[in-house]
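Hi team,

Filling in the usual template for the complex we talked about on Friday. All components are listed, including any nucleic acid strands or ligand strings, so the model treats them as one assembly.

SUBMITTER: L.P.
PURPOSE: interface mapping
COMPONENTS: three
RESIDUES: 1050
SEQUENCES:
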Amino acid sequence: MVTKDELLDLALLSKLDISDSDVDKLLVDMEEIIKFADKINAASTSDVEFDNINDLQNVYREDKVVDSFSQDDILKNSKTVENGFFRVDNHNHIE
Amino acid sequence: MEYEIVMGLETHVELSTNTKIFCGCTTEFGGEPNTHCCPICIGLPGTMPKLNYQVVRYAVMAGLSLNCEIAKVAKMDRKNYVYPDLPKAYQISEYDKPLCEHGYIELSNGRKIGITRIHIEEDAGKLIHERGQTFIDYNRGGVPLIEIVSEPDFRSVDEVTEYLEYLQLTMRYIGVSDCKMQEGSMRCDVNVSVRPVGSDKFGTRTELKNMNSFTNIAKAVKYEVQRQIDVIESGEKVVQETRRFNDASGTTESMRGKEDAHDYRYFREPDLVTISVSDDEIEKIRKLIPELPNKKISKYIELYGLSEVDAKLLVKYKRVADFFEKSIDGVKVYKNCSNFIISLIFSRFETEDQKEQFNINVTPEDMNELLKLLEAGTIRNNVAKKTLGEMLDTGKKVKDILSEDDLKGLSQEELTGICNKAVESNPKAVADYLGGKDKAVKSMLGFVMKNTQGKADAQLAEKIIIDIIKNK
Amino acid sequence: MISKIHELLKTKKISCVELVQKYLAAIDTLNDKLIAYVNVSSDLALQSAKSIDEKIASGEDFDILCGVPMTLKDNISTKGLETTCCSNILKGYTPIYDASVWKNLKNKGSILLGKTNMDEFAMGSSCENSCFGGAKNPHNYNYVAGGSSGGVASAVGAGIAAYGLGSDTGGSIRQPASFCGLVGLKPTYGAVSRYGLIAYASSLDQIGPITTSARDAAIVYDEIAFKDDMDSTCKGKLCDTVSHLDDNIKGIKIGIASEYFKAIDSEVEDSINKALEVYKSMGATLVDVSLPSIDYVLPVYYIIACAEASSNLGRYDGIRYGFRASEYKSIHEMISKTRSQGFGDEVKRRILLGTYVLSSGYYDAYYKKAQMLRGNIINDFNSAFESCDVILAPTVPMTAFENGTTSRDPVEMYQTDICTVSINIAGLPAVSLPCGFDSKNLPIGMQLIGPKFSEANLLCLANKFEQATDRCFFKNIEGGINL
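RESULT (copied from the run log):
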C-alpha cells in the first residue's frame, strides 16, 4: 500500500513533480504495480545473491592519459554556457 | 556538568593518479573549465565507466599503511542523488564491500583510533554560485578519491589534529596523494557529539563540513562542542544534522532545508565487474610501501640520536627525510646534518609548500661530502656553514668553494706557531691576562682565527695560548 | 538480403548511390504512415554511398556489410546525428561520440539511412510510448510494429532498411521481430558492447540485429560482437556464426518448457507445434524441461529493470544536454520541471517504481529479493540445458496488437512480456524467427533460447528452419526494396 505521502517522497527523490490532478491516477497505478511486484514475496530463494552475468572480475584500465574532448564539444549540447562553464540561471520565470 | 567529546572523522583524499577513476582524462588541478572532460566524466547518455587500476593499487597501499585488512572481493555501487555537480545523478562508490576495513592509527598518547573502512569513489564537479546564476565545471568530476572513515574514537581536538597530520603525512609518504587541504585534495567531515563524562552512551551527533584547514577544523569543533553543551544545558536536545562551518564568523550553521532528501538507494554498479585483489597482488603492493613516518621518527631518535623535535621536523616532509638519509651515508655524527637542514636550509623557505617541495641546489652527495670534511676536522663548523650557504646560493660544489689550502686543514705545529705570534704581538693582552683578566685571552684568540681564516679549533687554540703565556 | 546487396555491388549491377537513392525514395513514400524512422539522414547516407562507389571502382576488396543501407534504433549514439530515445527530454541532443557498435559498422562501410522509432527509453512493448507516435506494422498499418525496437522492425519489415540494430532489455528486439515477421537476435549479455547504447537497465540491455534472414543476423552479429575496451562487461563472441550456419543439426535436443505455453493464443501454439514437427523431421528430438521460476520472472524483471532505470535516468536534468523547462525559480526546480515535462507517463511510472524498490525499508523485500531470485532463474536454465541443447518457445503469446489498444493498465501490458524477459534475466541468447501467420495474416514468431554464447547454434537452427520451410513465413511488403 503506497500512501500519498510516500508517493510524494518518491517523486521528490526522483526529481519529478506530480500535479494534484495526477496524484490519484498515479496512486492507483503504483498500487497495481506494487501488488504485481509483491508476487515475489511467496517465492523462496537460495541465499546466493546474483553477482554479475558472466562472473567477470578485474577488468581495468591503465593509468594513461588520453586527450580530453574539446571544451566546445563538451558544452555543445547545453542550452546555456558562459566562459567555458555550463550555466544555469537560478531564476527564469515569466511573471 | 563535565562533558566528554566524541568524534569520528570522514576524510576524503584525492588520489594522485595520472587519470581519472573511470576515464583517461587528466587529473591535473585547475585548467580552463570543462577542458579535462570527455563523454564519460560528464556522464553523456550511453557512456560507461572503466576502472583505473592505479586507483585500486593506491587504495590498497593506503589501507596497508593504516593497518587495514584488504578485502578479497570488493565491488562498486551507485550512490544515487540528484545534484548539478554530479553529472550521472549517482556517484560510483563502494557501499557494503569496501576495499579496506578494520585498520587503526596509534596516537602519541598511546590511544588507538580505529579505521572503520577505506573505499574508492569518484569526485564531483565544481559549482560556482554568482549573481543568481550557477556555473558548472566538471574538470574535477571523476577524479579518484578514497574516503577514510574512522571509528568515533576521538576524545579531543588535539587527537583529531594529530590524526589528520599523520594521515596527511602517511599519504604523502606512500605517494598516493599530495593531501592539500587548500586545493581540496584532502577534505574532512567531522561527526561531533558530547556526553557527560563517565557515560558510555553516545550523544546525538552533528556532522561538520566545509573546513579547509586543520586550524578551521579545530575552530569548528571547539565552537560546535560548546554549542552542543549549551543546547543540552539549556534543557534542549541536539538535532542530528549537517552543519556548515562559516570561516568568517568562526561558527557552524545548520544546512537544513537543502533540497537533498537523503536516501541514496545504493545498489551494485552493473557497468563494472567484481574487484578481486589476490594475496600475491597484496604482497606486491606491500613492497611498494616505503618506511612509514612513525617508524622513521623512532629510528631517527633511537638510531641517529636526534631529539624528538628534530626527528619530527625532518620526517614531516618526505623529500627532506629522503635527503637526510642519503646525506648521512657513512657519516658518524648525524646531528650535523639535521642541524644544517633545520637551521640553514629551512630558514630559506617561507611556506610549508616550499619545505614540502624541498627544491635546493645541493645534492645529498654534496651534503655528504661536506659532512665528512667536518667530521674529519678538515674544516671547522663555521667554515662548513659558510660553505653550505654558498652551495645553496650558487649551486657550486664543495671543491669549487673550498681552496686546497682550506682542505689541507691546520696542523698542530702550524696552530702553535700562529698562537706564538698572537702572544708576541699582543703584549697588552698578555699583561691583562696575567693581571687576572681571563677575558683578555679572547683578543689573542681573535688574532688566531683571523690568521687561520677560521680554520682553527677555538678551544684548542685557547688552551695553547694559555700554555704559552704560563710557560713564558 | 545482405549477401544479395553485396553481390549486386560487387558485380556492379547497381551502384551504392543508386541503391541508397532507392531506399531513400521508398522511405519518402512509406515513412509518413509507418513512422519507422524518426530521423532520416539522407545527405550523410548519399555521401557515404559515393565514397563507397569510389572504393568499389578502385577494385579494392570490400567487407560484406560495406555499402549495405541499414538503420539504428534511436537509443544508439551516433556522433553528429540527433539521438533522442524518442523522448522529449532528449530532443535536440547530438552525441559527440559514436557507440562502439556503430563505430565499427561505420568503419566497415555501413550506410546509415537514419534513426528509428522506439518506445521512450525502450520502455514499452508497442512503440506507442514514443514521443513521435508509434511505428506501424508493415503487414497491416492498423497494428503496432511492437516494441520497444518497433521502428527497426517496421523499417526492415517494410523493406526500407536492409537490416537494423535494436536493443533488447526484456524482449525489445524479439517481440517486434516476431510481430513484423523478421529474425531478431538478442545476443548473450556481454557479447556485444553496450558503450553508446543509452541505458535503460544496464544489467539486462543488449544490442542485436533485426534482419530478414538468419544468415543476415549471423553476418551482422559477427560484426557487432567483439571485445570492447569501453565496456567492462563485454567479452565479445565465442566464435564466428556465419561459418556454422550449415552445421549438421541431426540429433539435436530441443527442450520444451510448459511454463511458456500457459496463456498462449491457440493460433500461436499451433504454429509452434508445426515448427516442432519440422525440426523433428530434420532429426531433432524433443525433451520436456521445467522452468518453475517463470512464475515470478515478470515481477523480478520489472523490479530490476525499473531500479536500474531510475538510476540511469537520473542524469536527465536539463543542464548539459537535451530539453530544459523554461520557467523556474531555482536550479532544483528547473531540474524537477525539466524531468516532469520531458518524460512520458510510462517512464515516470518506472522511475517511481525503481525508486520505491531501492528506497530504504523496501530494498530487501524487493530489489535484493529480486536479485536473489535472479539466481534461481539462472539455475533453472542451467539445469534445463543439462538435458537439452536449446529451448523452443513462443516469442510472444499473441500476434501484434491493434493500434491504440495497448491497455491503459500497465500491469496487463507487462504480462505480454512473459516469454521474453526470462532470457534477459539469465543473460542468455535467443533468436526470434517467423513460424506462421494468424487468421488476420499477422506474423507469428517463435524463439530459440540457448546457453550463453551459443549464438552460432541458435542461428544455425534458425537457418535450417528457414530452409526447410522455404522461407514461406517471410513476406515481402509492397513498396519496399526487394532485390
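MY TAKE: The first strand of chain C starts at residue 37 and ends at 40. The first helix of chain C runs from residue 2 to 10.

Thanks, L.
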